[in-house]
Amino acid sequence: MKILLLATLMVAPFGAMAADAPAPVVERVATFHGPMPTGVSVAPSGRIFVNFPQWGDKPAFTVGELKDGKVAAYPSQALNDADPAHATATLISVQSVVADAANRLWILDTGAPGFAAPIPGGAKLVAVDLATDKVVKTIVLDQNVVLPTTYVNDVRFDLRVGKAGVAYITDSSIKGPGGLIVVDLDSGHAIRRLSGHPSTSPDKGFVPVIEGKPLMSRPAGGKPTPWLVASDGIAISADGSTLYYCALSSRHLFSVPTALLRDETIPDAELARSIVDLGMKGASDGLAEDDAGRIYGGDYEHNAIRRYAGGKWDTLVTDPRILWPDTLSVGTDGYLYFTANQLYRQAGFHEGKDERKQPYELLRVKIGAGPVLLK
Fold first, then answer.
1. Phi-psi bin for 46: left (phi > 0), alpha (psi -120 to 50), beta?
2. Helix H segments across the chain?
3. Which backbone phi and psi does 196 adopt, to 5 degrees?
4. Nearest-angstrom CA–CA distance, 4 and 63
5. Ordered structural domains, the chain, with CATH
6. 3-state class of 113 per DSSP?
7. Contact (Cβ atoms closer than 8 angstroms) between residue 223 and residue 175
8. What is the number of other CB atoms lying within 10 angstroms of the CB of residue 2?
9. How far apart are CA 116 and CA 119, in angstroms?
10. Neighbours of 67 (CB within 10 A)
11. How far apart are CA 210 and CA 322, in angstroms?
């Protein structure tokens, strides 16, 4: 897979920016020729990891590390050789990678290539020790939280909770209920929360407009139908007390207290009363958080990155190269990194014609804050 590291590019911003600060410079970190990336994670050490789900591009590996201008299978090609007969021991189709505060890379495997039903044992969390590049823990998500329609999408961690920490995961199903999954990292016990709740579901009647055209499923020879994706983006507050999340097919951001979310004695109906609608942020895929208490979201309708701070939203930056900002990650270098992968140009949205134009890009902007590392 060919990767190019490129110099900083200045692009004239457009759109409504924060009144008290100029738009930051957009920098191109790398380009990708070949399979389309979705996730990115910048570890505290500065190492950069990306993933390539099995959506039809047939990537040779589903998780890779950017190093010396190239991307290579991580942590090994053997782990990336998907084997449905040994779904627990191999990576099937990874949607997200997230580095934690204990120098581990957590790999969130959907176990669901092409958005099919998850392969038994395939939906899982895999932790790789970044000091040794070895798998140190695998947590298989069982059928009480992984439905036949589930597509686990993104994850956040708080290592201070319980014996080994907790993970919060979004289910971004396109065929069934969305929801949040809470995983005890010590025991592997998981619970499903807010399944099918309006806050984890696509907005009714939602039709985004990108490059002047409504985004809908448009199969070759078929009729256009709405493309509705449930809870997708996820972020956690700097103190770990609040979880933020959004459906991909929505323009709203929601929050819920993490303590209530973890408490199995609280029924969903009661939990739902603690949900806060934080307003219209734009239509987002991924979210991110920084240690200054701000939340970031892509705005895929407007080639933009939005920011929530002080109870209000502003536009951090717009750039014509931000072609579907997918996953966001904050590095210890004070930059917000994000993939721009042209997801909306895939063949399924354009009557069977793939309109993506390679290369795909990894971009970044300076935000002057670091990642949230809860340990």
1. left
2. 77-80, 258-262, 268-272
3. 80, 5
4. 18
5. 24-366 (2.120.10.30)
6. helix
7. no
8. 12
9. 8
10. 13
11. 12
DSSP conformation letters of 329-374: EE-TTSEEEEEE--GGGSGGGTTT-----SPEEEEEEE-S------
Amino acid residing at 57: D
Phi and psi angles of residue 137, each rounded to the nearest 5 degrees, phi first: -160, 140
Cβ 34 vs Cβ 56: under 8 Å: no
**Plot region of 95 (φ>0 → left; ψ -120 to 50 → alpha; else → beta):** alpha
Residue 123 has what pLDDT?
98
Q: What is the pLDDT along the chain (375 residues), one digit of tens a residue?
A: 544 433 333 233 334 555 556 789 999 999 999 999 999 999 999 999 999 999 999 999 999 999 987 899 999 999 999 999 999 999 999 999 999 999 999 999 999 999 999 999 999 999 999 999 999 999 999 999 999 999 999 999 999 999 999 999 999 999 999 999 999 999 999 999 999 999 999 998 899 999 999 999 999 999 999 999 999 999 999 999 999 999 999 999 999 999 999 999 999 999 999 999 999 899 999 999 999 999 999 999 999 999 999 999 999 999 999 999 999 999 999 999 999 999 999 999 999 999 999 999 999 999 999 999 999
pTM reported for the whole predicted model: 0.94
Q: SS3 of 262, please?
A: helix
Q: Please list the residues that pair with 168 across neighbouring strands.
A: 156, 182
Token pair belonging to 330: 């904050």
8 A C-beta contact, residue 78 and residue 66: no
Q: Is 255 exposed, middle or buried (0-12, 13-18, 19+ CB in 10 A)?
A: buried
Edge to edge, the sheet with strand 360-366 lists: 2-4, 26-33, 360-366, 335-340, 325-330
